[in-house]
């Protein structure tokens, strides 16, 4: 009896390229699902302790606060109401 055919790559390359051969997706953060709880907790604390320091022109400098920090919503609403009241008062005159 003759041996049977085991494998063929006929037409496979064309089929593979039809939708394009894409690179595998690299995720920024790997899942910690199923990891031992104690190990995961230790990793979290270790990550906090090894934060990268910010360098500017080779010297250590403090991270400066923003020039215009974000205002609380109450302050923004109060300013808008005051502006609207001023417009109404100017319109009545």
Give a brief rundown of this model.
InterPro entries: Ribosomal_eL29. With 93 residues, the protein is mainly alpha-helical. Helix content is 43%, strand content 4%.
Write up this protein:
This protein has 93 residues and is mainly alpha-helical. The chain has a domain at 34-63. The chain has three helices and two strands, in the order ααββα. It has helices at 12-18, 37-49, 73-92, and strands spanning 55-56, 59-60. Strands 1-2 form a two-stranded antiparallel ribbon. The longest helix has 20 residues, at 73-92. The mean pLDDT is 86.
What's the arrangement of secondary structure elements?
Elements: H1 12-18, H2 37-49, E1 55-56, E2 59-60, H3 73-92
Antiparallel strand pairs: 1-2
SSE series: HHEEH
Kindly report the oligomeric state of this protein: single chain
Structural classification: mainly alpha
The helix count comes to 3
Per DSSP, what share of the residues sits in E-state strands of 2 or more residues? under 5%
Q: Sheet with the most strands?
A: 2 strands, antiparallel
Distance between the termini: 110 Å
Given as residue ranges, the uncertain stretches (5+ residues, pLDDT < 50) are none
Q: If you compute it from the alpha carbons, what radius of gyration comes out, rounded to the nearest whole angstrom? A: 32 Å
Give the averaged pLDDT, no decimals. 86
Quick one: how many beta strands?
Answer: 2
Helix content: 40-55%
> What strand line-up does the widest sheet have?
1-2
